[in-house]
Amino acid sequence: MHLEEFAEGESFFHRLDPRVKLLTLGPYTAVIAVAHDPVVPLAALVLSSVMAVVAGLDRKKLLNRLAAVNIFVLMLWLFIPFGYPGEELFFAAGPLTVTKEGIVYVLTITMKTNAIVVATIAMLGTSEIFSLAHAFVHLKAPGKLVHLFFFFYRYISVLHEEYSRLRRAMKMRSFRPRTNMHTYKSYAWLVGMLLVSSYERSRRIYNAMLCRGFSGRFPVIDHFSLRKHDIIFGVLMSTVTITFVIILTLS
Amino acid sequence: MHISEGVLSAPVLATGALLAAGGVALGLKKMDYERIPGVAVLSSAFFVASLIHVPAGPSSVHLVLNGLVGILLGWMAFPSILVALSLHAVLFQFGGITSLGVNTVIMAAPAVVSFYLFGPLVRKGHIMGILGGFGAGAAGIGIGSILVATALVSTGESFTGVAKLIVAAHLPVMVIEGIITAFCITFLKKVKPEILEVGK
Questions:
Q1: Which of residues 41-80 of A touch B (CB under 8 A)?
Q2: What is the CATH number of the domain that holds B14?
Q3: Global confidence as pTM
Q4: Of A152, A191, A216, which is closest to B184 when you measure between CB atoms?
C-alpha cells in the first residue's frame, strides 16, 4: 500500500526541516481558516500555489486530491448562494434568489479550502510520515500520542495485506457484494477477522518489545539539524502569517 | 463524516479543538504503555476497514465504524480517532489541521456515547448483543451527522440547507452501520471475547 504519494523528491520542501514545517504551517492555515473577507484567502491561494510549484508536486495527483476535497465545496455552491441575506443578483427558479454576498461567501470558502489543502500537501506531503512523528517528539507532543501514532502507521500496511488476503479468499469462494444481508454479514465478519488478527498481532508486538527491554522510549538514530534555509523559510512564513493577521484586524 | 478546511468559523473551530483536547487527554490517561500497541493496531485495523465500500442500493458507502471503535476502546476512541484523522489530514487532506479538533469530536464523541449507552448491553446475552451492536453502529453515525450539522449551523444560518441534507443522507448509512456492527459484535463475542474488554 503506497500512501506517501508526494514524499519522494529533491525539492526545497523535501529538504526542509519537518519541525520548521509543522511550526509554520499551523499558524499559516489557522489564519486562512478564520479569515472573513476574500482578500487573505486569495493571497494565500496564490502563495500556496507557488509552494506547490516549488515542491514540484505531480500535477495529476494534486488535481485528483483537489477534486476529492472540492466535492464538499461543490455541495455548498448548490445551497448557500440562494437565500443568503444581501443584494439580489438575479432570480433563479421561482422563489430562489442568488445574492452577491452569497456568491462572495462561497467563493471565499472555496479559496480557503484550496489554499489550506495545497499548502498542506506542499509542506507536509513532502515529508515522510515517520519524520513528521519524530518532529512532533521535539515539539513536545505527548509521548503516548506519538507512540500511538507510530504503531498505528507502522501496522496499516501489514493489516492491509491481511485484508487483501481475506478479500482474495472471499473472491475465490465467489463472493459478490450486493445490497443484501449476506453481503453485510460477510463484510462484518471480514472486519471482525481483521480485528481479531490485529489484536493477536498487538499481543505479539508487546511481548517482543518486552523481550527487548522496552522502557517507553524509542532510540532515534537520525537527528534534525537547523540549517540556514530552514531559518530563512521560517522567518519568511512568519512574516507572511503576521501580515495576514494585520490585514484581518485592520479590515 | 468530516468537514473540509476553510468552512467553519473561528469559534466553532476553537470549541472543537478544546473539546477534542479534553477527550484525548482523558483517553491518554486511560491508555498506559502496555495498552498502546493494542489500541494502535486496532486503530490500524479500523483505518483499513474504512477503505471497505459496501453496496447500498444503486450507490455504495464506506464504513466508518466509530460506534464499534467506541464499544472496543471507550475513551481511548479519542486518541485513536485523532491519530487516524491526522494521517488522513497529511495523506489525503480529507479534513485538515485546523478542522482536526472538530472532526475528532464529530467521530469520537458518538463513540464514547455508544460505549456508555450500549457497552453494557453488548456484553450481555445474544439478543442483547445484537440490539446493542445495532444501537452502537447507528448512534455512531446518527450522532456524528447531527454534530456535523450543528458545527455547520453554528458557523452560519446559511448552512441550514446543507446541514439538513447531510443528516438525511446519513439515515441509510445509520442502518447499514448498525447491521454491520451488530454482526461484528456477535462474531467477536464468539471468536475473541477478550477484545471487548480492551477499552475497560
A1: 41, 65, 68-69, 72-73, 75-76, 79-80
A2: 1.10.1760.20
A3: 0.91
A4: A191
